[in-house]
Amino acid sequence: MPAISFQSVTKTYPSTRGGSGLRALNEVSFDIAEGEFFGLLGPNGAGKTTLISILAGLTRATSGRVTVQGCDVQADYAQARRRLGVVPQELVFDPFFNVREALRIQSGYFGVKNNGPWIDELLESLGLADKASSNMRQLSGGMKRRVLVAQALVHKPPVIVLDEPTAGVDVELRQTLWQFIAKLNKQGHTVLLTTHYLEEAEALCSRIAMLKQGRIVALDDTSALLKAASSNVLRFKVDGELPPALAAAARITGRIVQLPAHGALEIEQYLASVREAGLTVEDVEIRKADLEDVFLEVMAAEHSHAAIVAAKQSSGARLPV
Amino acid sequence: MSSQPTVMVTGAMSGWQTLLYKEVLRFWKVGFQTVAAPVLTAVLYLLIFGHVLEGNVKVYDTIQYTAFLVPGLVMMSVLQNAFANSSSSLIQSKIMGSLVFVLLTPLSHWSWFLAYVGSSVVRGLLVGMGVLAATAWFTTLSVVAPQWIIVFAVLGAALLGSLGVIAGLWAEKFDQMAAFQNFVIMPMTFLSGVFYSIHSLPPFWQTVSHLNPFFYMIDGFRYGFFGVSDVSPWISLGIVGIALLVVAGIAVNLLRIGYKIRG
Predict the structure, then answer these.
(1) Among A98, A130, B22, B84, fewest CB within 10 Å belongs to which?
(2) In chain B, which residues have their Cβ closer than 8 Å to the Cβ of A121?
């Protein structure tokens, strides 16, 4: 039985002007196995948070079915939610309570009594022990984020969902958080992560799905995704505007240009084109492709990938990029 | 680390009890605003109206105006604060986003209802007892039928707590909530016979008053003190009971469908 199963999930938000409405998710189907550390990636507006909201029962799917350890999130919502711990994306808190009260109350909602030792352990592990008696209003953004994580874990859920948990937080918290979550994952907890930090997803996730415009456009083991992408990236600085043909394929950040390169010949052709355009090239380097390169390639080639994914999904096979 | 990836053993009853506890703790932490302030307001009403009208107005021929006013003020405070509790908690947590902590839990719509209405009843009764204790110094009050006092206080608080749940779910902004409070709750409370017996009104306004369910709550509550009322307490009980069932039914159904809280 999968830890999480999305089965043909579609979500359409009704239009305020009487049109056909906005389709945020379109027949999304995939499973996450018990104990997996799974990454869900996609640009803003791709449907990641909608999918997680449906999983958490915050939003209802227009059609399709979602289960958590076999429990339907609508028909058997109480059992499904007992199995889920969700860290929401927004930095929300209840200003009436201190940290320990907030955790005790959250624990009580799940009917967990005498949870003091586990709450102490959470406070210690997330660096909150000295803030236990502080009111939530007095905490910094990073500390509030830690409390959100602790609240999600207070009932020891077997399935943990983290919706961009490190957005806008400092490096120290990110390290603390990932060490802690990785530890829980090693103990058997299933983790579903959405993040904009692709290096985090690459380092942590064993499998990754990419969403674009409400559809899955890639789904595979992280290593397979990396292998399937361009093996190398050519990176250099340039002192002017690239020729249009080159610019279309490049990732440009200020003066820095990065181009996917499959071999030495292609690299030589790129550099020759730049020289022919009368531009000066500096700081040339060739590096291995990372998940960000894969992500950009997949997003750029979304139409062809969507067709492949649809074909693979219908055959039930794993989905190479 | 001793975490185990299994579902923790839970008790079905303790989830809503925690939400009830949290809601009571929430208003208790700001007790000056939620309990002490309404008591002071009621005392000011008593001082001003009592001072101006005492000696000029006699109700039911024998009852001094200040004595008549006290149960009305107590019940008005009970009703207004019961409404304020559930409505303000819901609108605040919706706007601040902290409602998500409850939305993510396995609590059923019945649990939500019991906790939000239960805490409204607690606050309403607490404020009512505070008003009674503070205003009783200014007059001599008899208690003829305490069972009616308790029944109408609890049912009235539950009715207004349920109405507060509906308003809290419906309102998306604080000014919508303020409109509900100022244009619905406040007029219905003030025009329910808190400050007067409806027998002193012209026939038309007597008829209008009989359409106001708040009138029956206050009239029945007052019967417990004096043993006399504008209508029979049994009629008041029936009307308040039916109103409670209707309003509670709407509130429970809105919670069940996740009205404006689940997309």
Answers:
(1) A130
(2) 1-3
